[in-house]
Design a protein that fits this description.
Elements: H1 7-17, H2 21-26, H3 28-61, H4 68-101
Helix pairs in contact: 1-3, 3-4
Length: 104
């Protein structure tokens, strides 16, 4: 398994944000649905990395695995994934707050 594989999810989000304005009116709900599904997928991936890190830590503590390198890689993957998820959440909340402050 390559360490760079999770970065592919970021590229898939770039495709979601490139919406054609003419097409958006026809399939606006599909655009939101694809964005929502991408967000759910990223949350599931973050959860999976967290569980893998916990399993690696338990395996190391029980003496089943003596490779500290694998443990640190699993923990760093989980940490980076969580940081990325929190950054996305913060961006969405900032956008929501900005929309709520608009006066029509």
């Amino acid at each position: 398994m390559s360490l760079i594989a999770p970065i592919n999810k970021i590229q898939s989000l770039d495709n979601v944000f490139q919406v054609n304005p003419v097409k958006e009116k026809a399939v606006g709900s599909e655009t939101f649905e694809s964005l929502y599904q991408s967000a759910i997928g990223l949350l599931e991936e973050t959860n999976r990395y967290t569980h893998e890190a916990e399993e690696a830590q338990m395996s190391y503590m029980l003496g089943l695995n003596d490779n500290v390198h694998d443990l640190l890689i699993a923990q760093n993957k989980a940490n980076l994934s969580l940081q990325y998820t929190v950054a996305i959440r913060n961006g969405i909340l900032d956008a929501y707050k900005e929309l709520m402050q608009m006066q029509f």
